[in-house]
Specification:
- The protein has 467 residues and is mainly alpha-helical.
- The chain has 4 domains: 6-69 and 232-304, HUPs (Rossmann fold); 79-229, HUPs (Rossmann fold, 3-Layer(aba) Sandwich); 316-370; 379-466, Arc Repressor Mutant, subunit A, CATH 1.10.10.350.
- It contains 19 helices and 12 strands.
- It has helices at 19-33, 53-66, 81-94, 104-116, 183-193, 206-219, 249-255, 259-268, 281-287, 302-315, 318-331, 339-352, 359-365, 367-370, 379-384, 387-401, 407-420, 425-437, 445-466; strands at 6-9, 38-43, 75-76, 97-100, 141-144, 151-156, 160-165, 173-175, 198-202, 225-229, 232-233, 298-299.
- The strands form 5 sheets. The chain has a 3-stranded parallel sheet with strand order 1-2-3.
- Helix 5 (183-193) crosses helix 6 and helix 18 crosses helix 19.
């Protein structure tokens, strides 16, 4: 019987959720959700000096915005320190670890001597096979007995077969002399106790896998399936940093990208399913597998991100889109929508969402529905509202008062007005756009009139006609 899939995301709460961490969480989430498994969240907060509650909150907020829900409670690694120490002492009892009283000065001297010889040598503690009769009555660290010959093999689902010579692996400390566990021990104990079957993480952890695998072996535990994914680089092929733009997940929300579009784009960043570029989250869950992850670093492409997000905005239900727009405004520190604006934006969605790639673009296209009189006009709109155009608007408004306010009748009235003035409809549309939205680039005149209604349309036309 196949074991249920259990994946985990285990960030350190020392800052915001990095976009690379967001993608790692997404890969774990997709792999588990697509197989009916569990996706667990562990906060690796053992670095007490750098870990902060604010960073933890930022990580949880970033995951929530991305729509990555986790199973069960969030686990604190620090809260499990007693369990980690228990395992270290069990390793002592098994003979797979030993007590070490080597001082930092002795270790530094060993390394300096090796450096002076021009060689690299891992520290070999004199306490590894020391007679218990020589043990001092003093605090000690617990070191793992690493194999000194042969090789350790990592069968990685992304990187392939990775071989590490055991001669390069030291007897790492698993429990410090003050009784605190090291990261290498804590990770393995937590993953084992949480039942993690697949460790999917950045390939910067690949070297750690060899050392962590030895802890599994020392405890007689089953080793999880490893999958070390390449990092994300900037468009220039260099490691992603602030110089490339936003690196935090929260920044993408504040820039107005929809969560569904981010999930789609991040899933495609380093993973492929044939030639499919645009897909729903449900499709991603169904398709995602480890064999589709490439070994080369993925490059962030903002144009592709925008086009992906535009595809998702166009396909999102209006109510869900409105909810996300309000989340964007809050994240960006912008004023929220009034009840009236919320209603009008909801009514306008059908005619503004098809060509918007971000929420700022969507809001700009829906500007006509969100503004109030007097309508502020930009330079191009002001030029369109010349004396002749204002005269046409003035003669048009009485004809609109008794219109049935259907698209068909509005089209008939406006086309008739254009013909009566010896102009094409395009010549009439420009001052109409300017009067209704204060812009010359807008949704169709008819859509705007239908969204804001008869009274507001006439009021804006009369205002523009009056100059």
């Amino acid at each position: 019987m196949t074991k249920p899939v259990v994946t985990r995301f285990a960030p350190s709460p020392t800052g915001y959720l990095h976009i690379g961490g967001g993608r790692t969480a997404l890969f774990n989430w997709l792999y588990a959700r697509g197989r009916g498994g569990k996706f667990l969240l562990r906060i690796e907060d053992t670095d007490r000096e750098r870990s902060t509650p604010e960073a933890t909150a930022a990580i949880l907020q970033g995951l929530t915005w991305l729509g990555l829900d986790w199973d069960g409670d969030v686990i604190s690694q620090f809260a499990r320190k007693d369990r980690h120490a228990e395992v270290a002492h069990e390793m002592l009892a098994r003979g797979t670890a030993y007590r070490c009283w080597s001082t930092p000065e002795e270790i530094a001297a060993f390394r300096a001597e090796a450096e002076a010889r021009g060689t690299y040598a891992v520290f070999q503690s004199p306490w590894r096979d020391a007679d218990p009769a020589t043990w001092p009555d003093a605090p000690y660290a617990i070191r793992m007995k690493a194999p000194r010959e042969g090789e350790t093999v990592i069968d990685d689902q992304v990187q392939g077969r990775v071989v590490i010579q055991n001669a390069t692996l030291d007897d790492m400390i698993v429990l410090r002399s003050d009784g605190t566990p090291t990261y290498m021990l804590a990770v393995v104990v937590d993953d084992h106790d949480m039942g993690v079957t697949h460790v999917i993480r950045g390939d910067d952890h690949l070297n750690n896998a060899a050392r962590q695998q030895m802890v599994y072996d020392a405890m007689g535990w089953e080793v999880p399936i490893w999958a070390h994914i390449p990092l994300i680089h900037g468009p220039d092929g260099k490691k992603l940093s602030k110089r490339h733009g936003a690196t935090g997940v929260h920044e993408y929300q504040a820039m107005g990208y929809p969560a569904s579009g981010m999930r789609n784009y991040l899933a495609r960043l380093g993973w492929a399913h044939g030639d499919d570029e645009l897909f729903t989250t449900e499709q991603a869950m169904e398709w995602f597998d480890l064999s589709g992850i490439g070994r080369s670093p993925a490059r962030l492409d903002f144009k592709k991100l925008e086009s992906t997000c535009g595809w998702h905005i166009a396909r999102t239900e209006d109510a869900a889109l409105l909810h996300e727009v309000e989340g964007y405004l809050a994240a960006a520190g912008e004023p929220g929508l009034s009840d009236g604006q919320r209603d009008l934006l909801s009514r306008a969605m059908y005619c503004v969402k098809d060509r918007a790639k971000t929420f700022p673009e969507l809001i700009e296209k829906a500007r006509f529905a969100l503004i109030s009189r007097p309508v502020a006009v930009d330079e191009a709109a002001s030029k369109a509202l010349d004396l002749v155009s204002r005269g046409i608007l003035k003669s048009l408004t009485p004809r609109l008062r008794n219109a049935s306010w259907t698209r068909e009748e509005l089209e008939a009235i406006l086309n008739d007005e254009a013909a009566a003035n010896g102009i094409g409809f395009g010549k009439l549309a420009s001052p109409l756009r300017s009067a209704l939205a204060g812009r010359t680039a807008t949704p169709s005149v008819f859509d705007m009139m239908l969204v804001i209604g008869r009274d507001e349309t006439i009021a804006r036309l009369e205002e523009a006609a009056a100059g």
